[in-house]
Please model this.
Amino acid sequence: MADVAGRAGVSKATVSHVINETRFVEEATKERVREAIRALGYRPNTAARSLTTQRTRIIGLIVSDVTNTFFAEIMRGIEDVLVANNYSLMLCNTNEVLEREEYYIDILLRQGVDGIIAAATSQDWDALNEAAKLQIPIVMLDRTFDNADSPYVGVNNSHGAYLGTRHLIGKGYRDIGILSGFQRLSTMRERQAGFEQALAEANLPLRQDWCIDSPLTIEDGVRAMQQLMSQGERPRAVFISNNLLSLGALMGLRELKLACPDDVAIVSFDDHPWAQVSDPPLTVVRQPTYAIGETAARKVLKALNDGDAIIPSALFSCQLVVRQSC
Model:
């Protein structure tokens, strides 16, 4: 910093103010400092800067599965907003394991992140309370849980599932099952509720043996669909609550030598790149994933910059995209 100050003909304090944006500096002076930084290849020490500014300019992001294109697109929206505001992103992947989630919360707090955006794995996230005690802004992403005080950004899952199930009913299907995913997750419970609402309004029975819970992986989608379709009496249509489950479901049908939609119709929650090129192209309930990520990032930054301001939750609508799977 002393070398930069000497080259620019300013004090070290002025260099610090330019780097940290902590005080007004004339534009011409700023440009001299920036030129000196470029010429000398100076990189400020992040740890030292955080001692001065009380900020690391790092936001922690906790997701359950980085291989899921849903979270990848959300992450792109978050990152675009953060980079534009000179923040960095620290990504943590839990694989839906509560212990790993708690581990990453501890890591983020040790690193002194300025805020946390999280898709929670548990229903009662005790570790999150530690972050709240430290007054670290938290935004819940995609999922929430009982008694959560933090703002939430997601979609109207119940109505999205309702739209998808109503589409099956409108196509004339009456024997409808569901691959419902993890019921400990708020998203899956809400989608199950929307599915049940559509059946009830059409006076169709809810058969518990046609409601298959499972983890949210391709392999579990294979197993869940095979379990559903290997029953003595099987449904003619299936609503699937997650994109990875739907990919596994198509693979499971192929192993059973059953075809979609001839043997069973499918509507899936979540759009994804392969949904349009699968055989047949899948009818889906699409979420505005990039916008969800953008909004979550803006909310955590607003919480940081506005102090005690109340940050409202944001609930997006879903869109039914009709293709050829039913």
